[in-house]
Structure formats: C-alpha cells, structure tokens
Target: DUF389 domain-containing protein
Amino acid sequence: MLHLRVICPPELTEHVLALLKDARGATHLTLHRGAALVPAGDVVEADVARECTNSLLDALGDLGVEREGGVTLEAIDTTLSVAARRAQEAAPGEADDAVIWEELVARTGEESRLTWTFAAFLVLAVLIAAVGVVTDSPVTVVGAMAVGPEFGPLAAIAVNLVRRRPELVGRAAVAVGVGFPLAMVATLLGALLAEAAGLVTAQSLEGADKVDFIYQVGPFSFVVALLAGTAGMLSLVSSKSAALVGVFISVTTVPAAGYAVVAATLGRWDRAGESALQLLVNLVGITVAATAVLAVLHRHRARARDRSPAEVD
Model:
C-alpha cells in the first residue's frame, strides 16, 4: 500500500474527504485541520492500495488540489491492520500490475538529466568495461554493466514518448547523447595512457576471446535488447528493483562503448565499428521495447477508464 498525504485549502477539505471515504481501496483516513502552514490549509492522510491510486490522483487533480495545495505519496513497507487488508481486497486488480503514472514520471524524470553524477557513473562504467576488455575478464565486464546508469534516461525517453512530452524526450536524449561520448573520450585518454605505459598492446585484443560477445553483432543482439527493455520497464512500473539490476547486466551498452574505444586506440577499426553498432542496437532496442510496454499499459488504462472511471488501476 501507499501513504497518501493531501494538503488542501479548507474549502476543498470536505470534497477530499468524501472522495477518500468513497474510494474502495482507501483506509486509515485522518484529518488535521489547519495543520499545514506553507501552503496553508488542512492535511488529509490515508493509506491507499496501489490499484486505486491513479484514479484518486486523477480525481484530486480535477479538484485542483495540486494548484491550491499538494499531494504526496510514500511507499509503506509493513502494515498490520485488518482495515488495510480489507481495502486491498476491495481494490480492483492486482498491486503488482498497477501502474502509478505520476510516480513513474517522477522516477524517470529524476534520472533523465545530464548531471555530474550521471556522467561520473557512466565514465566509471565504461572505464571498468575497458579494463575488462584488455584483461579478458567477463566478470569485470559484468561489473561495468551493473554500474552503468544508462537505463534511467532511456526509460525517461519511453515514458515521455508515450505521454507526448517532446521537451522531456529531448532532455533525456541529451543525457544519453552527451553522456556516452563523454565517457568514451575519458576512456580514450585512459587507454592512451595505458598504452604509453605498456599496459595495453595490440595483442591485448587478440587473446581476449572471452569477451568477443561484446562486438559480435547478430539478430540476438536486438532480441536481447528488446527483452531487456521490456523487463526493465516492467520492473520500473512494478517497483521490482531486483529485476532492474538484472536488466543492467543483460545488455551490451557500456561494454560496447569500452570495447570500441580500446579497439580504436589499437587500430582495430573493424572491431571498433562493430562495437559501436552493438551499442546503437542495444540503445535502440531497449528504448523501442520500453516504449511499446508503456503504450500497451497506457491503452489498457484508457480503455478501463472508459468502461468504469471509478475503478481504473
């Protein structure tokens, strides 16, 4: 369940209370009159089932609560309550299948910006991948996959394509379009220093047969990217963080960037080109699959809302 807190002006309080009292998946309803200072107003709180959260947020938006006050959602880890159990049973659908669109937009929006933190993680991930390439270490390559933060902006692109927010799509695209070249330039400098120190030679790639999968592009490269994008978006909408980690270590994005740089510095332009193609295939595949998943869920929600506006999950 989720904890819902609403700050609203006194003239809207009774409407908010009536809305939450009538909601099938809401319970533990409390009211604190005059408790809010900025913005001033009353505070209404309730615990709500995930399945009915979207419809409640839509109704609160129709009341103008966002303009006059505010709405906050927090996840509840443990609830010991018969009333809460009854509310969950009364809510339509299953909690794991419920998509809270505003939560999804907020989560992906936070990760869609080109920040120093995002750039630093991507640089570190590509550098680790490059080390894995020259040492022929699949374990190191997998570690680089787990460090890479690239799924955040890719998910943001998918979310905002479905919600038709081109300006946010552009912002997320900039994070990917600038982040990867920046990480590859940093890795290029590191590779050149390693070569100058004699740590990397032309033979480094010849014997690296355990990481050949990085640059070998084939039909399954795109298939895996599609499957990973689907799994990643499903993990986001259902808050399954463990599954999201699995997505990070299943796609060859960061390793391909690292391999392309190392291969280019050693004059292996064929492998550098194939690695770059691998990177592009994976980025496109993930984005296409994530967008398709959200489009299906969005259409399902629209149809359910047309049938019964009060029971949209």
Summary: The two ends are 13 Å apart (CA to CA). Residues 104-300 form one domain. The first strand starts at residue 2 and ends at 8.
